[in-house]
Amino acid sequence: MTNTTLTPQKLAPPGRTRRERKAAELEAGTRVVAGRLARYSALPGAQVLQDVRATPQGLRQDEAEERLERDGANVVAHDRGPRWYAQLARAFWNPFILILTALVVIMYAQWLQVADEEPFDPKIPILGAMVLISGLLRFWQEYRSSSAAAALRALVTTTTAVQRRAGRDTAPATVEIPMDRVVKGDVVRLAAGDLVPADLRLLTAKDLMISQAALSGESLPAPRADTRVHDYGQSTTTDPVEADNLALMGTSVTSGTATGVVVATGSDTYFGSMAGSLVGERPETSFDTGVKKVSHLLIRFMLVMVPLVFAINGFTKGDWAEAFTFAIAVAVGLTPEMLPMVVTTNLARGAVAMSRHKVVVKRLNAIQNLGAMDVLCTDKTGTLTEDRIVLDRYLDVRGGEDSEVLEYAYLNSHFQTGLRNLLDQAVIDRVLEAEEVVVDARFTMVDEIPFDFARRRMSVVLARKELTGAAAEHVLITKGAVEEVLSLCTHITDRGARVPLTDALRREAALTAEANNRLGLRVLAVATRTTPADRETYTVADEAELTLIGFLAFLDPPKKDAARALQALADSGIAVKVVTGDNELVAARVCADVGIDVGRVVTGAEIDELDDAALRELAAATTVFAKANPVQKARIVRALQTEGHTVGFLGDGINDAAALRDADVGISVDTAVDIAKESADIILLEKDLMVLEQGVIQGRQTFGNTIKYIKMTASSNFGNVFSVLVASAFIPFQPMLAMQLLVQNLAYDISQLATPWDRMDKEYLREPRAWDARGIGRFMLVLGPTSSVFDITTYLLMWHVFGANSEAHQALFQSGWFVEGLLTQTLVVHMLRTRKIPFLRSRATAPVLVMTALIMAFGIWVPFSPLAGVLGMQALPLTYFPWLAGTLLAYCLLTQGVKTWYIRRFNTWL
Is 608 designated active site? Predict the structure, then answer.
């Protein structure tokens, strides 16, 4: 295929703004890609293969490697993480750091005016160093955090099946490769549950249904034309989404099978061309919203208090330039500039810790929802049961063992090419390997009607070979859910004879299946139909007038530790609801065996008869839902969310994808189908509720440490600035220089960098934890002024006891308040981190103890250090320190008293 000369830059007219130009380029780029795909869609398949230099057998391995090297990985550009230098720039692009930078610029401009008369102000490089320290600390932690998160995401790989050849003359083999290694010209095999890895021109398709919601917004799957090998259909539509012989990147297969040749990868795909406008940012979680609310709350306080400080200092001291500098320092002191770094570090460290418990976090902010989760909807297979399916028995319609049922079931499982599950594997495992050779000699595959979750069955059509080698007849073998298969049967095999299926025989067959269901066995029906060998194409309509052969009964024993895991979740405040597509009798039996109070089992058919209001009421009172399809599962999740619950959904199948997306936290496993893993926020490396319970606890630990930092720093900074406001109104000189306030604030923030390594009290971890921005504001207003009480007593101490009551002695006053303010601020870390009595009933971890001790030692050292002169401070008399010890003790006692009252009044703490 010749390359088009049109490019997005040539097609896009220059816009008046950068955003308009970007939008025009995106639109132009999408048109170019759409035109290219329309051409591929209109060409015969053989011509498409020739254009991309491929064959129906697939690429040679060396060809694929060469193309990967030339074209790059199959990754849409916007999905790549920012480069280190972009992260570094972003670390400094922070309102709090920008304020510090503005302060440096202002101070430098002030010095320039008197540069001929005054020496260079040493506070300027110190403040510049503070800017660098803040930005570099944030960059380092966020860079490490993003690297850790990327490493965790790499543990969960999404693969696709492609046909590759080892050499020119070797036969093609189907191999699983990571999606990012797919190249143009690869022949891809698709089955139900697969993500489409790139833009494909379909070569063959059978009952293929594609979910295109990510591209078109249409929730219903779109069908693709059935095509046979070497029958490459053509399309005339110019819209690639509507072309019935294309499958585009970003879509997924809901049912059927297909093969297709890759015609575009990465940013050259239709999805890639739309990525800038289509995908954008993910919706904000309650965590994101909560952090924004706290920031806005602090900004509102800043907008009120900073002008007051500026006005009071300007009028009382007469130096408006110094008052402005001090007001900016107050603004910095009120805002937790380390908040983004601490939050990111907390989440990343939590994700790494969770990975040690076999829980991989794909999206860091999902940790908050995991900690807040109070309802878990889960399938029973693999979570409540061993996920070790064994074919327990194969029965005729009257319940007697019948080897013919096993033979037909084996043929169905052996020849199918679509979504093979554990049930199929259990059937295959019951037949000797030697039998496989015999079967392949007696039968050949004619066609297949793949499984889907609406029909709940699948069929294969086989040609039965005669001795001459010619096929005299075709046999259609259907295996699936009992009700769905039985409804299609008109005859039954009874004691070796084919007889009409009377109502009495239908009831007897249903009772046989029901009796095995009550034993906790999963039952499938097997039916056949023989047709003349006069065609090679079969459809769903041919699944009619079947003859029921018998039943397969599978055993999936309950896990020994399932009851313990359910109790652990209950103790953690999480209600478990079982939502399964299985039979209600099997679901009820398994749930009862693991200690679930089943009550009334609600089926999918009942859910369809209810409106949303009625479903909300029913979902709240129901523990087990059976025979639920994908739409019904998603409705259950939304109904519970409407009732105010934070809902987690644990699933691993195609039919779980919608519910995984709708849940507050979607949870899947590393063995799940591609679309389930892609839809999930959390991936379990082991499908076990105990693993999930450990993840929940770690999620609450991470969330608790984040809230701890926000509440501590917000209340402490608010109290500090409140003290500044009081001092500014009554003291005839600056109560603390801008530089001193900034150094104090930076030191306090550094003391809290160890917060992500702290522990939470066990009592905190027992309940789901949700974000409460209103509670944070209340916490700040109540606890903040507590420290101000002792700031004011320190003012009085320095003024009356140590005689620092004039501008000539302001350095002594400021030094005394600097030390007391920093030590009480740092001590508050221990006072507020727990609802218990600190040090006695709850002790912080070693990193927190060491970091706070170092900062407190730094605070005492500064007035005696070489930095004292630069910061405008002086050494404190030794008689100050007994007063300081008394102040700290009184502060601890008062804070503990206020904490006790607060907990009793509002029944909450962190």
Answer: no
